[in-house]
Amino acid sequence: MAQTLIILFCSSLTISLLAISSASLDTLTPNQTIADGAKTTLISAAGAFEMGFFSPGSSSTRYLGIWYNNIANGTVAWVANRNTPLSDTSGVLRFDHNGGLILTDGGSNVVWSAKSSKASADLVVQLLDTGNLVIRPVNDSYPDNYLWQSFDYPGDCILPGMKFGLDLTNGVNRQLTSWKSLDDPSTGVYRSGVNGKGYPEIFLWNGSDTMFRLGPWNGIPFGGRSSLLQNAIFTYNFVLDEAGAYYMFQLLNASTAMRLMLNSEGDLQFLTWHDPKKGWEITVNLPTDKCDDFSVCGANGNCNMTKSKLGQEMCDCFEGFSPSNLENNEIKGLFSGCVRKRMLTCGNQDVFSRYPGLKLPDTQNSWIDPRLNLDECKAKCLNNCSCTAYANMDIKEGGSGCVLWFGDLFDTREFLASSQVLYLRTAGEGSGIISRSKGKAPVAIIVIVVLVVVTVVLSLFLLVVYKKKKLRRKADQSQREDFELPLFEFARIAKATNNFSNNNKLGEGGFGPVYMGILEEGQEIAVKRLSKTSKQGLDEFKNEVLCIAKLQHRNLVRLLGCSIEEGEMLLIYEFMPNKSLDFFIFDKVQSKLLDWPKRYNIINGVAKGLLYLHRDSRLRIIHRDLKAGNILLDHDMNPKVSDFGTAKSFWGSQSEASTTRVVGTFGYMSPEYALDGIFSFKSDVYSFGVLVLEIISGKRMKGFYQPDPNLNLLGQAWRLYNEQKFLELVDKAILQSCNYFEVCRAIQIALLCVQPYPEDRPEMELVNLMLSSAIEMPRPNQPGFFTAKKLQDSNSSSSLILDNSDVFYSSDI
Ligand SMILES: *[C@@H]1O[C@H](CO)[C@@H](O)[C@H](O)[C@H]1NC(C)=O
Ligand SMILES: *[C@@H]1O[C@H](CO)[C@@H](O)[C@H](O)[C@H]1NC(C)=O
Ligand SMILES: *[C@@H]1O[C@H](CO)[C@@H](O)[C@H](O)[C@H]1NC(C)=O
Ligand SMILES: *[C@@H]1O[C@H](CO)[C@@H](O)[C@H](O)[C@H]1NC(C)=O
Ligand SMILES: *[C@@H]1O[C@H](CO)[C@@H](O)[C@H](O)[C@H]1NC(C)=O
Ligand SMILES: *[C@@H]1O[C@H](CO)[C@@H](O)[C@H](O)[C@H]1NC(C)=O
Ligand SMILES: *[C@@H]1O[C@H](CO)[C@@H](O)[C@H](O)[C@H]1NC(C)=O
């Protein structure tokens, strides 16, 4: 360092004797200029950076800027007149004798200027090898004496040695702002910096919206990013004291280059120069994944990428919280945060749960005291009713300092590399700290959960029966949403099913065999038996009990009760004599039994069942595995939606912490669900669209058919719809009975349902309205998963939809 200073010192002495605007040197003295027309520039002493005029990308306008010179030649690090470009090469930068830097155009208009904090005749402008342009006293080159520096005014780039954040010594808040585009350095919408509220940390904003935050500094760099923990290129430190709150990066090897850049797409990137490749490498790109989206799980929700990768709902509630009631949540998937199950008592009954391995919550609403230890921190939190969590500030050497959070907690995520622990306050029965046992979900707990649910359900049932006798119930069945789940004796069911004999077996369901049975009083039932070997089944069993026990609709299969004796778990349903829809529509002979009026009735029935699930039931439910095989038919061929093993309701997310489950069936899965694991009510709408096309055409979504062997069912429907040849899509078996008007409408509705973007699909409410009335319908666009099969390679599967696997399991943990 001392050496460079000496070199700088010497070179500045030499220059002051030289004539102006000749060779490229690193300082400007009063009355010297840098002129675009004369192609003069400044080059830092060791040649790392150059300053002059340039045109970015394909633009022809001129800017004064600083760029890398030795390596990464031409990469721009700073622009002076980013919002006031020059239209020609008339620009001149002049250092006037009062310590002002002035950029003028051909007409001598000032386009940009900078002024030293002190007027003096003995000043120079110098471009340092750090990329910093400074105005300083001529014989004093110490950083404290810079009278102006470009490092105080970053553009889209933070260089090593630059303070990123709040510098209270001169009241500057150094933030990054993106370029509009590669060709346009003017201020774009993205901004990044250290927030001034609460415990400071780096934020990234899109306009006024928060996009991402890095997580508070905890002594071990970046509370939310493991990839930054160790690296061979740079070190960094966070300063939090009277001098300010800022980050600073330093290179480990001065012959490399590294910068933090906010690009015009809104990505915050650590870039390092890779010399062999002569290019910048992205060391870290932020935000990285879905859990990085700011507060993606809402208040008190925790985002878990492990779950997301397993195809499960990525959002979770903390213990003691349950998902809040969700309205208008389709836009953001389905999770909109969590609320406390029980209010804080504000006394000694409150307890703290221990959460290791988390990114700490948003610190904007936090309070810090570096002097307190963890016990004092806890006491402080208990003393204030609105304090909801606490943690150590610094976790080096056992931890010190105290952060307190007030009110709802936002934007936590699983962050396994973190050794920091968050202590979350909940209303507890006892006192002390509950240690959360992670990853274990013993069978006993599930059995207890089921037992508790059943007991609650049973007592409610008794209450309801009692009330009903007094009141005489109302006629409308579908309005009634009471809990009614009787317990059956195991022996009774064993008897009804001939001791689960193979002759009674109807098939294999999601989590075990299904048997047909006849109760003593003559009622026919279907019995699902949880196979004892199936680990997956337990969760589905629980899910199904909890989901369907509360549902009552004539288009949903009815659960009559359950049995959980002798280690057996059984679900007892009303028996559906006519099996499932796929048995009819895809079979040459059976398909004749379902004429158009019956099929149209089925379409309408399924639509009503789904509407009930989505909107009307007490719990709003996403089915997630709607398909022909899950539509059962009663005596009169009325449809009943069945199989709620994979359904998703709002209370459900947190009780599924360790489930590995069937998540759907290819062909029926919407693109965003199949590809990204994002599901919403609109994924059911997509499945419904596929189902309607199958019902009309008698063809399976999986597979390719004449006359267009290159197009799948969606592709054919889309083509025929465009050619107005609706009847060509209709199953030959029902051509006689079909109503042209109804068929046309149904095809158009189906195409609207299978739109690639969820927001383009109608809600089930609108689907029902379109089915039952003649309201005008929008024109569909090309469906999602529209596939033209490649002619040449008949063997290899050319796309996801061609996959023949029937059911898609998420992998075991
Ligand atoms: C710079 O120019 C001003 C006015 O043109 C003059 O007064 C001053 O002496 C000059 N300074 C130097 C160092 O040449
Ligand atoms: C950088 O670019 C300039 C002009 O484009 C060229 O003259 C110079 O040789 C380049 N330097 C390196 C190190 O590539
Ligand atoms: C430059 O240095 C000399 C001696 O070190 C000092 O007397 C003089 O005041 C300095 N000039 C300025 C402008 O600070
Ligand atoms: C930033 O906000 C705009 C407007 O809301 C939006 O269109 C854009 O997608 C956002 N950018 C990112 C990266 O999210
Ligand atoms: C610094 O980097 C250069 C070039 O990559 C390398 O040759 C040199 O050994 C490095 N120095 C240290 C101290 O790592
Ligand atoms: C609790 O903390 C909040 C936020 O710091 C503060 O406004 C409030 O006065 C505190 N209440 C008590 C009783 O200390
Ligand atoms: C994230 O999900 C995985 C898998 O379900 C689970 O084991 C882990 O405990 C979860 N992490 C948190 C912090 O909830």
Automatic annotation (TrEMBL):
Keywords: ATP-binding, Disulfide bond, EGF-like domain, Glycoprotein, Kinase, Membrane, Nucleotide-binding, Serine/threonine-protein kinase, Signal, Transferase, Transmembrane, Transmembrane helix
Limits of the EGF-like domain: 287-327
Signal peptide: 1-19
GO MF, one example: protein serine/threonine kinase activity
Superkingdom of origin organism: Eukaryota
A Pfam cross-reference name: PK_Tyr_Ser-Thr
Transmembrane residue ranges: 443-466
Catalytic activity: L-threonyl-[protein] + ATP = O-phospho-L-threonyl-[protein] + ADP + H(+); L-seryl-[protein] + ATP = O-phospho-L-seryl-[protein] + ADP + H(+)
Domain Protein kinase: 500-785
Descriptive protein name: Receptor-like serine/threonine-protein kinase
Annotated ranges, domain Bulb-type lectin: 25-148
Cited SMART domains: B_lectin (SM00108), PAN_AP (SM00473), S_TKc (SM00220)
UniProt domain Apple: residue ranges: 346-428
Alphabetical GO biological process terms: recognition of pollen
Species of provenance: Daucus carota subsp. sativus
Assigned EC number: 2.7.11.1
Gene3D superfamilies: Bulb-type lectin domain (2.90.10.10), Hepatocyte Growth Factor (3.50.4.10), Phosphorylase Kinase, domain 1 (3.30.200.20), Transferase(Phosphotransferase) domain 1 (1.10.510.10)
Family annotation (PANTHER family): BULB-TYPE LECTIN DOMAIN-CONTAINING PROTEIN, OS01G0783900 PROTEIN
Family affiliation: Belongs to the protein kinase superfamily. Ser/Thr protein kinase family.
